[in-house]
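Both lines are quoted verbatim for reference:

——
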Amino acid sequence: RSASTTCPKAPGEKTAQLFLGSRPDEARAELDSTEGQRRRWAIIRLARCGNPADAPRLAGALDPAREPVPLNRATAAGALRILGNPVAVPALIQALRDPDPTVRAEALRALGTLQARSERPAIERALRADPAPSARVEAAYALRRLADLEALPALALALEDPDESVVFAAHDALQQISGAQRPPHRRHWEAPSPRP
């Protein structure tokens, strides 16, 4: 799509158009606005326009020094997931250290959707050590999307997580990746057999 075309409309976008108009170049300009709400609508509009070339601009919005509003950083991670451009992977990895758990969870969701297989160790670290259960759940689902048998030991370890939602997500990922149906207890998954 060219920079001057209009973006498709979705429910609730009248507000965004009031702020930004319907042209992607107008939305790009608003990424530098001093108003957080205008920046968030710009991120949403660019995601809706669906131009993967906007990924580097949106990746900049993951930096807390540049974008102080956590909701906007989380929205940017979601937008990068929608755009599907792997150029965003390094910024998403950096976002795993964001102080806000919603930003980290959205970054993990994006890494899984982008099939960032080379970043499996970072996703496994998040599954093991992120203090927020919501981020650990998204890490398990990201590993499920990667469908990498190398992730099975980390997922088996996550079956001992104190949060039930993490255990559920890890068990689901184990079953999907391995093709095996076993109880959600680590001892049953210590040496999982790969799919036949």
Observations:
- The mean pLDDT is 88.
